[in-house]
TrEMBL record:
<keyword id="KW-0325">Glycoprotein</keyword>
<keyword id="KW-0406">Ion transport</keyword>
<keyword id="KW-0675">Receptor</keyword>
<keyword id="KW-1071">Ligand-gated ion channel</keyword>
<dbReference type="GO" id="GO:0043226">
    <property type="term" value="C:organelle"/>
</dbReference>
<protein>
    <recommendedName>
        <fullName>Ionotropic glutamate receptor L-glutamate and glycine-binding domain-containing protein</fullName>
    </recommendedName>
</protein>
<dbReference type="GO" id="GO:0005886">
    <property type="term" value="C:plasma membrane"/>
</dbReference>
<keyword id="KW-1133">Transmembrane helix</keyword>
<dbReference type="InterPro" id="IPR019594">
    <property type="entry name" value="Glu/Gly-bd"/>
</dbReference>
<dbReference type="Pfam" id="PF10613">
    <property type="entry name" value="Lig_chan-Glu_bd"/>
</dbReference>
<keyword id="KW-0813">Transport</keyword>
<keyword id="KW-0175">Coiled coil</keyword>
<keyword id="KW-0812">Transmembrane</keyword>
<keyword id="KW-0407">Ion channel</keyword>
<feature type="domain" description="Ionotropic glutamate receptor L-glutamate and glycine-binding">
    <location>
        <begin position="12"/>
        <end position="81"/>
    </location>
</feature>
<keyword id="KW-0472">Membrane</keyword>
<dbReference type="GO" id="GO:0015276">
    <property type="term" value="F:ligand-gated monoatomic ion channel activity"/>
</dbReference>
Length: 84
């Protein structure tokens, strides 16, 4: 079981919380659109979701609208591609 799954399960079990877990309908983390945000960011902003445990990148755009916790994982993975 990965960290993204084990952290919320541990919190739920220790706090005896009643939660509903679901997958975001459009399957995305969230990008800005002219009508709002897609994905989990959109669900958080419109009140469909109260919180999210996901490998969601903190961006300037997202952080203007959402409160992020301190990161629990850092990766040094980089992506390089040719400009040709």
């Amino acid at each position: 079981m990965g960290v993204v799954r084990s952290i919320p399960i541990t919190i739920i079990n220790r706090t005896h919380s009643d939660v509903q877990v679901y997958l975001v309908v459009d399957g995305t983390f969230g990008a800005p659109r002219t009508t709002g945000w897609t994905g989990i960011v959109g669900d958080l902003l419109d009140g469909s979701a109260d919180l999210s445990f996901a490998p969601l990148s903190v961006t300037k755009q997202r952080s203007r609208h959402l409160d992020f916790s301190d990161p629990y994982f850092f990766s040094s993975i980089s992506k390089l591609s040719s400009t040709k």
